[in-house]
Write a structure and sequence with these properties.
The chain is about 50% helix and about 10% strand. Strands 3-2-4-1-5-6-7 form a seven-stranded parallel β-sheet, sandwiched between helices. β5, α8 and β6 form a beta-alpha-beta unit. It is globular, with a radius of gyration of 22 Å. Bound molecules: guanosine-5'-diphosphate and magnesium ion. The site of guanosine-5'-diphosphate has 15 residues, from α4.
Length: about 325
């Protein structure tokens, strides 16, 4: 059994789908074999065009990804899909509908779909998603589409996951354009108003255009207090890219070829302007920063004996000390 679980990176690089599926499982499960596998695959993960598709639940991201994949296949390009499914905190399972719709595509060898169950912390999920996307990219797909849920997820992580980020909005979804403005809009390279068959879509597009015209600056120094603020080179060249607003109908595919043209144009502009390198650096910084935090935390926690921790927790529970003072006491113990 143990032998069967081994995955040869060469097989993954050669496009062997079973090897890819096993590699992704190793990565998702954080198995010991993950590290050497990633070492071998990571250098080959830079060629695919990774396109992130994000936005509020119900805007039609899964349907749109499905359509984009079909269209890309018609253009003769191979597609990897990573779907980070929303989960109910109670069921812990991925929403079934997504998987079913994705199945429309599953008879085609030019498409590979991986649905990730988002268990555990969002930070942990984001880190696993980075690795899953790297493995998918190394498997030689022309395009890797990544569907993520916008709500509640770190914009920084969504933005750096992909070379091109598509933010999907839909008409009449609680008029939450104000919420969009709070962060997710800033990460959009392309804005999509999906459900173009809805008569309200034109006014939604106008509202978004008005917001773009107000001038949203793309943040180059990302979140405060993170390492990336230090390692992202200042004065990063921008692309001069104008964020387009594209209407799509994911049911009949209208607007999807144009959307793909825009995604390709965006990638070309990244290459032309040199922003490609800046973004690659920002992505690397986010990844290193996240892993470093995990490693440091684990390392420091090891230094605290469990009984000492229990004792302090007990003191807080008995109101003999405050949680703040308790943490300070524990910190004093650290090397
Ligand atoms: N009318 C209309 N409905 C759509 C369109 N795209 C998706 N939907 C529907 O919107 C709902 C949510 O779609 P889904 O792809 O699961 O959205 P997600 O939660 O963003 O992944 C489903 O009932 C879809 O059939 C569209 O272009 N027009
Ligand atoms: Mg979905």
């Amino acid at each position: 059994m143990a032998r069967r679980r081994q995955v040869s990176p060469e097989d993954v690089l050669a496009g062997d789908r079973r090897a890819l599926a096993r590699a992704l499982t190793l990565v998702e499960n954080d198995a010991p074999a993950k590290r050497p596998l990633l070492e071998a695959l990571y250098p080959h993960s830079g060629a695919a065009h990774v396109i992130g598709v994000t936005g509020a639940p119900g805007t039609g991201k899964s349907s749109l990804v499905n359509r984009m994949a079909l269209e890309l296949r018609q253009q003769g390009r191979t597609v990897g899909i990573v779907a980070v499914d929303p989960t109910s905190p109670f069921s812990g399972g991925a929403i079934l509908g997504d998987r079913i719709r994705m199945r429309d595509l599953s008879g085609d060898p030019g498409i590979f779909i991986r649905s990730m169950a988002s268990r555990g912390s969002l930070g942990g999920l984001a880190r696993t998603t980075y690795d899953v996307v790297s493995v998918m990219a190394a498997a030689g797909f022309d395009v890797v589409l990544v569907e993520t849920v916008g709500a509640g997820q770190s914009e920084t992580e969504v933005a750096t996951l992909a070379q091109t980020t598509i933010v999907v909005e839909a008409p009449g979804l609680g008029d939450d354009i104000q919420a969009l403005k709070a962060g997710i809009l800033e990460i959009a390279d392309i804005l999509v108003v999906n459900k173009a068959d809805d008569p309200r879509s034109a006014s939604t597009a106008r509202a978004l255009q008005a917001m773009l015209d107000l001038g949203t600056e793309r943040p180059h120094t990302l979140h405060h207090g993170q390492l990336i603020a230090v390692v992202t080179p200042p004065g990063a060249p921008d692309t001069g890219w104008q964020v387009p607003i594209q209407l799509t109908n994911a049911h009949n595919g209208e607007g999807v070829p144009d959307l793909l043209d825009q995604a390709a144009a965006h990638r070309a502009s990244l290459t032309r302007s040199g922003a490609q390198a800046t973004r690659a650096r920002a992505k690397a910084a986010v990844e290193v920063d996240g892993l470093l935090r995990d490693a440091l935390l684990a390392h420091l926690l090891e230094a605290i004996p469990p009984e000492r921790l229990q004792q302090v927790i007990g003191a807080v529970a008995a109101r003999q000390t405050t949680p703040h003072a308790a943490v300070e006491t524990l910190m004093d113990d650290l090397p």
